[in-house]
Every structure is written in structure tokens, then in C-alpha cells.
Amino acid sequence: MIKAEIITIGDEILYGQITDTNTQWISAELDKIGIKTVRKSSVGDTEEAILTIFSEATSRADVVLVTGGLGPTKDDITKKTFCKYFGTKLAVHEQALIDLKAFFQKRGREVTGLNLGQAELPLNATYIQNKLGTAPGMWFEQNGVIYISMPGVPYEMKGLMSDAILPRLQGHFKTPTIFHQIIRTVGIGESILAEKIADWEDALPENLKLAYLPSMGSVKLRLTGFGENEEVIKAQVASEVQKLIPIIEEFVYALEDIELEVAIGRLLKEKGLTVSTAESCTGGYLAHQFTKVAGSSSYYWGSVISYDNSVKINQLGVRPETLDQFGAVSEETIIQMSENVRQKLGTDFGLATSGIAGPDGGLPDKPVGTIWIAVATKDKTYTQKLQLGGFREQNIHLTSINILNLLRKVLK
């Protein structure tokens, strides 16, 4: 296994002034060519911190990838620190200078003194042209470890990686084949899921590893195979997935890395069915889950956001006596909301949500997190009561996940 460490340099990352998206993208691309990321680190713009992390990374990794600190200003010290680490000095690289001048000339601009300094590279660096910017990439080799320096600007880094660095790494290392199979589940917690599949997991071949990747309301399983022959690994993984599915079939909604709303959209399209929503506590969030999927206009027709009871009565036709007797957060109300929105908008399914998202509004018999959801068809209405608790945003999100899952079960 070839091991990589990714280092981001810049005070702005540590201060939270920008979001580091580079390390996620780099590790995903390395994974595709069989290089395993074993550590990600962020350090500030100080020589001491950078030298320390370089020394530590050398003991852990076969390839060290560094982003940031290559700009023309005084606070960008990555090149100088590489010089100190390798015991060398900066000098003008002729090809880097030619490419830099061409970059500015193409844009009708003069190269300033500061920018000219970007053509200076450590003497032991192999130059990698940055076609999208002025800061070159650099490749170093010492004691069997590869060091790669790239600009921190994401689109420049991605250009360098895709065009030059990834192909060169593939040529340098004899990497194993890595194959991932994703199994997306919903409606079951991580610990219960682990108990259900414990015997299957324990019996996995040594070259197959399972990872649990939980998120709010769902758990992603990633089955990873390692080996030399890609077709053999894929066949192994497929065989194990066939054994797994019967154990957890009711919770599996996809065998690829897609969100629940995408999977449901596909089911609706396949069956030629349509859906509308009536939302109270989710306030349009459920509609957003449908409409953020491209092509959803073929199956999602619209929503009535009935946040106030007057809208429930006047627009959805919920009976006032139902609200008076049972309240907005009740099975009786949610049934009328779902059935009436289905009829008013003329869809096959009517979905409805009503609850106490919090942080205020809870009652002794209806505490914060009490939610009712419903899915109405022309023949039957399915309801479910949720007791979520937690924070407002969490309750809204989990309500949407649960009603989408209820719709999935009805569709199935």
C-alpha cells in the first residue's frame, strides 16, 4: 500500500476564514489510483510549523502533497521553507520564467517584480507548469519519499493534479487496485445496523474491508476491496453484497452513492407517478429536497406551506373542528393535510408534515420534536409519529428524511 499525507499551508485555513476543500478532493483522486491517504494536516505560515510537519510526514508517508503558500507576497514562504528542508537555494528556472511571461503576455499584462519571483524554484525541484495560474507546481524526491507542492487555489491545484501529477504518480508507483462498493441505507441506526450484519462482516475475506459512514438520518456502508486484479476484486465485492442485501433489504435504498431524494425521484419516474406536499413544521424544506434534483418537474408538482392554521383551513381545507379538538400536531390533522393537498394538486401522492421543531412551543403531551408525517394515496393514507427532540434544524431535516423514507416504502 502506497501511503500519502496531505498538508495545507495557510493561516486563513486555521482561522476558519476559508474552507479547505483541497484535501477532500486530493484524497478522493489518490484513492482512485490506489494511493491511501493516511493523514491530513493544516499548518500556519511559519517556517517552524512547516518544517516540523514535513519531518513528521516523511516518517509516515511515501508521498507528501502540499498546497498553499506559493503566492508572490512575503507571507508565502513554502518555497523558501522547502529550500531550508532540503538544504538548497532558490534560483530562476528558465522554463518557468518563459511560461510566466507567456501567461502575462496572453492577458495583455506586464510581469511585475513580485511575480517574476514566482519563476524562482529550489534547485532540486522538478518544475511542473501551472497552465491556470502563475505559481508553478514542484516535485521533489529524497530518501524514497516524493514531495509535491501545489498552489492552494482549488481550480489551479486540480488542473495540476489532473494533467501532470496523478499520471506521474501512477508511473512512479506500482499501486494496488482499490474498488469501492457503496450501499446506502435509511431508517436504521449505525449500531443496530452493525449488530444485524456482524456475522456477515466477520466472515469477509481479508482483502475486503467495511466502513460505516453515518450521517443525519442515514448510514452509508462502504465495502472496499484491495488486490492486483480489478475484475477479481469486483467479483469478490459483488458476491459479498449479494449475501448482505437479504439481511438488510428493507433499509437499502441504493447500491450507489446517491441521496434518498434522488433514489425516490427515480422510482417515481419509473412508475410514472406524481407527488405534492403540504408542509407545516418543515416550512418548504421537504419541497426543496424534491426540487433540488434535476428533472424533478416530471414528478413533483408543488406545495402548500401551511405554517399558520388559517392556511391549513383556507388553502388545504383542514376542518376547524379538527384543529380545535386535536391540534395542528396530530394524526387527524396530518391525514386531512395529505389527502387534501393530493386532491387539490391532482397528484398520485400527497405528503404532509406537522410538528414542533423547537426550540420553543413544546407541551407536556407534545414536547419539542413531536412530529406527525403522512403519505396519502387515492386508496389509503399512511401516517407515522416521530419523537425526535434535538435542535430545530436537525428536526426539520430528520422529518424530511423520515417522510421520504415512508414514501419509499409505499412506492416499494
UniProtKB/TrEMBL annotation:
Family membership noted in the UniProt record: Belongs to the CinA family.
SUPFAM superfamilies: CinA-like, Molybdenum cofactor biosynthesis proteins
InterPro entries attached to this UniProt entry: CinA, CinA-like_C, CinA_C, CinA_KH, Competence-induced_CinA, MoaB/Mog-like_dom_sf, MoaB/Mog_dom
MoaB/Mog domain segment(s): 5-172
TM stretches of this protein: none
SMART domains tied to this protein: MoCF_biosynth (SM00852)
Domain of life: Bacteria
Organism field: Flectobacillus rivi
Name by which UniProt lists this protein: CinA-like protein
